[in-house]
Design goal:
Number of strands: 3
Order of helices and strands: HHHHHHEEEHHH
Strand content: 5-15%
Helix content: 40-55%
Bound molecules: manganese (III) ion
Number of helices: 9
CATH topology of the largest domain: Helix Hairpins
Oligomer: single chain
CATH architecture of the largest domain: Orthogonal Bundle
Number of domains: 2
């Protein structure tokens, strides 16, 4: 991801993962009488090789997940923003309901997967280092162990396809654990996701079949990149 893309992405993530905010972003960029044409969203490259997370996350699933599934959300988001631009140009808003749904679904899918790839690293897992993230986890959840149990329980209990999410709520300086159904349901306004675990079956089925808790345990114990989670927390707090 280039610096510009990263800034744009962090800015987008910082404003939440919500449909109306994506819609407003699209509106500002796509208005026919407004500023220059919007740049299409691009699939961010993986920050490691396909097989770098073996044996906990297999190369075949990583390749399919990134190159096929994540790419489809990027394509869908660009298509939805194109439809939005056409609505604005024509003044015909009959399709607004479906366009809003597509902006939310594909926009949230793109944002959450972009976080997921850097949320993992070879040799990850364990606990975060001593710093603002670990201090805030203890303040909000009592201990890292309690947080970890809550995050895994919430993620394992997602109904159908979705995500486990640790997010930062800047209004009162709190971390919150949430579930998302699909990509965009059950979210909370005004929070910034900093740690996400994908529990759509496409994320784990080849290797773990129906054993979702085995995937989430491997994610937690061997893959989480806590440095990335803390960098996201600091960005959300407004620190450089
Ligand atoms: Mn996925």
């Amino acid at each position: 991801m280039s610096d510009l893309d990263r800034r744009e992405f962090l800015s987008l993530a910082g404003r939440g993962i919500l449909a109306t905010q994506l819609l407003l972003t699209g509106t500002a960029n796509a208005h026919p009488k407004g500023a220059k044409a919007r740049m299409p969203h691009e699939l961010p490259p993986l920050p490691y090789a396909y097989d770098a997370l073996e044996p906990y996350y297999d190369a075949q699933t990583v390749k399919l997940h990134h190159d096929i599934h994540h790419a489809a959300y990027v394509k869908g988001l660009n298509a939805a923003e194109e439809k939005l631009a056409q609505m604005l140009a024509s003044g015909d808003f009959a399709a607004v309901k479906s366009v809003c749904k597509e902006l939310a679904f594909h926009g949230s899918g793109h944002i959450l997967h972009s976080i997921l790839w850097t949320n993992m690293k070879p040799g990850g897992g364990g606990e975060p280092g001593k710093g603002p993230l670990s201090r805030l986890i203890v303040k909000c959840f009592g201990s890292f162990e309690a947080f970890s149990k809550l995050f895994l329980a919430a993620t394992n209990a997602v109904e159908g396809s979705g995500w486990g999410i640790l997010a930062y709520r800047r209004d009162d300086d709190q971390l919150v654990v949430l579930q998302a159904e699909k990509h965009q349901d059950l979210t909370q306004w005004g929070v910034t996701p900093i740690l996400v675990c994908d529990v759509w079956e496409h994320a784990y089925y080849l290797k773990y079949q129906n054993k979702r808790p085995d995937w989430t345990a491997a994610f937690s114990q061997h893959l989480v990149n806590w440095d990335d989670v803390e960098a996201r927390l600091k960005a959300a707090m407004g620190e450089k």
